[in-house]
Amino acid sequence: MAYSTPAYGSGSWGGSSSPYDSCVQQCIASYGSPMASYTPPTATSTMASSGSGSGMTHTVIVAPTQGVLRYVPFAINASVGDTVMFVWNANEHTVTKSSELAICNETSASPFASGEQNKSFTFTQMVNDTNSTFFYCGTPGHCEKGMFGIINPPNAAMGSNTSLSSMMPAMVANSSTMSAMWSYTNMMTSNNSAAASWGSNIDMSSMPEWAMSLVAENVMYSRTFLAANPETLDATGNVNLGAAGSTPLMVPMDITAVMSNSTSNSTAAMAAGSSPSTSAGSTTPTTTNGARALASPNMLAGLITLAAIAFAL
Ligand SMILES: [Cu+2]
User: InterPro entries, alphabetically (predicted)?
Assistant: First the structure.
């Protein structure tokens, strides 16, 4: 299992002292266990050949590990004729089509719904148009915690004040939790500009206000995921999880865990969250995210992945 150095970006994986690696070590120290990993199914890199033209397949992970209520990547850009393949990596989630105005409700317009499914299930959808298509998890409570995603997200015009990147500063300024997550994300992506700016152009002008911070959290989580797996992101921001081949992908802790660690620790550390990595490095979380303990098989794989990385470096 060769875990090669990154092909994209300028030193996105970096040397052994990269922020990402030090964060990995910090996570191990903080959580007492390495990050989980996700092994792409072998079918990921195979093109569908059944009369669908030359469409490509986009993989979206449904819950990258038990307890992380995310779709990864949060948003994909797909063309007509492409296929979106949802792959479950944890139990009891759905992929259900909704709409931008009612993100957590099943739509009646050309609906699709996987039903409740468990780890290793796959659900594919052909892309029939390039309209923004929202989908969510129908397991009670999950969507409200941010478990939704977008195929062909709305794009903000140049200079728009409703793009994610232009709204982010105000969100960070108005929320200490958002500020802590933002600092953490910036630290994790500091050596990977494509990951650091991924999703910047998503236009939030038509989204309900309650969803905006959740969109930001989802984008931040996808950024940390992509920075952890730089081979899955090209310089133009396109994600191809299949690019990793059979190499297990690293699954970072959920973005909200940053916040709960800070909260359980000291508010002083949170207040300092907007300063660079030193503040994040000085936090010494004492609690373990209980959900992660459920993912022991994955953690074993994560350990192997970390070992492989250590050798590659
Ligand atoms: Cu779910």
Answer: Cupredoxin, Phytocyanin_dom, Ser-rich/MCO-related
The rounded Å distance from CA 67 to ligand 1 centre is 9
Separation of CA 60 and ligand 1 centre (Å): 14
What spacing in Å lies between the alpha carbon of 92 and ligand 1's midpoint? Answer: 6
H helical segments located in 198-253: 209-228
* Spatial contact of 310 and 13, defined as CB atoms under 8 Å apart: no
Angle at 216 between CA 14 and CA 132, to 5 degrees: 105
CA of residue 186 to ligand 1 center, whole Å: 27
What is the rounded distance in angstroms from the CA atom of residue 97 to the CA atom of residue 267? 39
User: Residue 53 carries which DSSP code?
Assistant: T
Output the pLDDT for position 246. Answer: 83
In the three-class reduction of DSSP (H, G, I as helix; E, B as strand; rest coil), residue 297 is classed as helix
Domains of the chain: 19-312 (2.60.40.420)
Q: Output the pLDDT for position 144.
A: 97
pLDDT tens readout for residues 192-245:
999 999 999 999 999 999 999 999 999 999 999 999 999 999 988 899 998 888
**3-class SS of residue 41:** coil
What pLDDT is attached to residue 262?
55
Residue-wise burial string across 84-121, b where 16 or more C-beta atoms lie within 10 A, e elsewhere: bbbbbbbeebbbbbbbbeebbebbeeeebebeebebeb
Q: Could you tell me how many helices (H) and strands (E) the chain has, helices first? A: 9, 10
ipTM exceeding the 0.95 mark? yes
168 CA → ligand 1 middle, Å: 26
Asked if pLDDT for residue 105 goes beyond 80, the answer is yes
Contact 216, 168 (CB under 8 A): yes
Residue 174: how many CA atoms within 13 Å on its side-chain side? 6
